[in-house]
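FW: tagging you since you asked about this chain on Friday. Here's the raw sequence from the shared folder, copied in full. Didn't touch anything.
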Amino acid sequence: MTGTVSRTGPPSDAPAEANRSLTGLFAPRGIAVVGASRTPGKLGAALARSLSGFAAQGGNLALVNGRDETMYSSVQAATDNGPVDLAMICVPAAACPEVLAEAARAGVRAAVVCGGGFAEAGGPGIGYQDELAAVVAATGIRLLGPNTSGFLAPHAGVTASFVPGVAQVRPGKVAVVAASGGVNHALSFLLTEAGHGISLAIGLGNAVDVSAPDVLDHLAGDAETGAVALHVESVADGPRLVNSVARLAARRPVVALVVGQHDIGAFAASHTGALATSWRTTRAALAQAGAVLVDDERELVDAVGALSVTRMRPVRDAGVGLVTAQAGPGLLLLDDLRGRRARVPELSPATQDTLATLLPPLTFQRNPVDTGRPGPELGQIFRTVATDPAVDVIAAYALHEPDAVDLVAAARDGRTPDVPIVLGLGGAGDDVVRSRRALLDAGIAVATEPRGVAAGIAALLSDARARSRPSRVPGPRRVPTGVSGSYDEDQAKQVLDRLGITTAERRACAGRGDAHAALAKIGGPVAVKILDATVLHKTEIGGVHLGVTTAAELDAALDRLAAIGADRYLVEKMAPTGVDLVLGARRDPVFGPILLLGLGGTTAEALADVAIRLAPLTPGEAAEMPAELNGRAMLEGWRGGPVLDSTELGRVAAALGDLLVANPDLDEIEVNPLRLTATGLIALDAVVLTRHVPREASDAQPRH
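HL: got it, structure written out here
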């Protein structure tokens, strides 16, 4: 994602105060509205109205406006008459830094600057934002914003937002942490419509001080929060965000929506650089930290809503039992689940025998279980499916038909310990709304349509898989160090050789005589390539010629290479046919060392079918990456082709990650193609990109 405004906080070298308590912000004893107004259309008036409920519950609400004799003349005057922990600042941007400083001098612990006109506006606004940051650094006051519509903390009675309708958001278990104030409110309203309450909902705005990691760390200790919805636009400090998500996900689920799928960066020096977009890398990093990923706001609501009321036991390959009261919606649900790679196993013969005593003979009973029109036996059906050894979670759908069955009672009666139910309840009207609310209160996840059920189930499965992964840090492994300077393909492959990665027999040639000697030594067919550290995309300039067997063919290839300015060549044994992969390790500017695996070779960027991990990681963790590829069937013996040894792939990938971590001057190393053949993996091309430290500085530089 691009842009000039940070959306997840200051970099990791920010002041140590970055982890200060947020209690003064989210649970204040008193609130001062600075710039309060009695003119209805003004921001200060809207905030005063929103916070009137805080005063009604006994909180100290102080209205500050030096030009209105009915209000306090200053923040200090307000604090003289009662505790004030939070200042809501509603004055023009140019005046905000001094008001923030005054609040800090008066002992206020936190502030919110709602208005815009700061860095997002450019010009003088950049300076105003810098001044706010300076006040924060000098005083330690916590600052939310600027350029935010505020936050909601319903359990504390704080509606610190000027958006109409926020008073309708009730207390509950879902926390929303959004980069945008508008998205924060949009998600809060969607969750409210779905029957969920809010524990905290915050829009970060420009995030001069309070950032997503700060709020996530706060929520890790918040007993009112059952699950967290995280909306990310851009990331300033990747490691800090990842660490915060990992700490929180260990206690309560985190569901993440990352904006920027269709961002287009500048042409990169390597396929790895082009494929590892900020969107892909951010999603991969959050998933590795334990977050559940979703693709849109509707799925986010269904996913976080389900996880806020129920959570599966940790399991890697859970089975879904599907129970439907109507066949058509059941097929939609089944299709959606299979599209999400959920496993819907056939039920055991014993389970099917029991179901046969509960259901009409013409209904489908192997999984999915089609009940026909549901009846009083629905609770027993839920319980029977839940006790099947292959079932870890139940996905269900039924229309609201109170004359046929009490769905709330059936779901309650049919629950089995450690086997959650996600129930889609279709229908309209107040009775349906009340039934959905009763199910949520009973700890049963609810959706309104089959797609919502599938989203909830997928979230439970993803969360269970993440928690089943062993929590461990990769141990030290021996890899080359001192990798620096410039590398041509032969030198890059020497690095791979030292890592134990298979390369083809080859010779680096300084002229035609060397090339002919190499062909005679290696034997054809060979590949003949330009050997130049400055040329990274050789095929695009005609720098690669394949299948060269005879001396005449070699001369013809050398003539064509000479025509593009080549005076050094690589003569290399042709590899067997197979499936081409791209495997790269690069130093991401936000998240640090990452690994990327994808299908493609020269078509990698067109396919964009990749898996990404933060490095370092163990060979076992790296071995799981191919399972994420959409084209993974190509690696499983497709039409008699080669079968990937995931253990070998894991070793190779982990070694590249270790190399990057161990060599601070190494920016990137890419193997493309890494060909899967009948005899294993072989690196056909390699690129090493460094910070171009002079060659004399490295005692590990490959030499001829």
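FW: The first helix runs from residue 23 to 26.
HL: agreed, and Confidence is low (pLDDT under 50) at residues 1-19, 264-268, 693-704.
FW: great, closing this out.
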